[in-house]
């Protein structure tokens, strides 16, 4: 039998439906990641909080197995998320190349999507490890797992240690600070005003440095 090759080339062509399916899978992964972050939030621990007491025994006040499972799944899903973003970008590249040759009218839409995915974000210098309900941080929209790329005047380029953030907070009581984070691959901006509240500190959240 003689193979024509037409079916194999047709099957290899990327369509917009293929891209939409990949984006749907990406959205599902993001929802799963957020669900596991919610589990950690409900348990009152962060991604790196200790699971043993001062004597080295598993903590009795939290579900250690559930927390370990959530942390493991978050790590795995974040790798899946990075991989599917690469797939989406490659698919859009192929789609754009073919559609450009076929129809000029579709070029702008594909280019817009491609550019949106290619926006480069600075690497985060800190991560939100806990947020207390009813706090200024919670009210501003800060969430567990947010990766900080800007906190007032502190950014990726000038960050040295957490004292930089503490200093900004102390000198900005009652004044709104622009905070920019990366949340499941997306850039999110918010206004956070350090102020006295019923809990400790001026923010009501715990921020840990990101190892670089």
Summarize this structure briefly.
The protein contains six helices and six strands, in the order H-H-H-H-E-H-E-E-H-E-E-E.
DSSP strand count: 6
Mean pLDDT: 85
The unreliable regions are: 1-11
Structural class: alpha+beta
The best one-word shape is globular
Strand content: 15-25%
Q: Percent of residues in helical segments?
A: 40-55%
Span of the ends, CA to CA: 57 Å
- The tally of helices reads 6
What series of H and E elements makes up the topology?
Answer: HHHHEHEEHEEE
Produce the secondary structure layout.
Elements: H1 6-12, H2 16-43, H3 64-102, H4 107-118, E1 126-131, H5 136-140, E2 147-151, E3 154-155, H6 162-170, E4 177-183, E5 186-192, E6 205-209
Antiparallel strand pairs: 1-2, 1-6, 2-3, 2-4, 4-5
Account of the 3D structure:
It is a single chain. The protein is an alpha+beta fold. Helix content is 47%, strand content 15%. It has six helices and six strands, in the order H-H-H-H-E-H-E-E-H-E-E-E. It has helices at residues 6-12, 16-43, 64-102, 107-118, 136-140, 162-170; strands at residues 126-131, 147-151, 154-155, 177-183, 186-192, 205-209. Strands 1, 2, 3, 4, 5 and 6 form a six-stranded antiparallel sheet that branches. Strand 4 and strand 5 form a beta hairpin. Helix 3 (64-102) runs antiparallel to helix 4.
Q: Which features characterize this protein?
A:
disordered N terminus; alpha+beta; 6 helices; globular; six-stranded antiparallel sheet; 212 residues
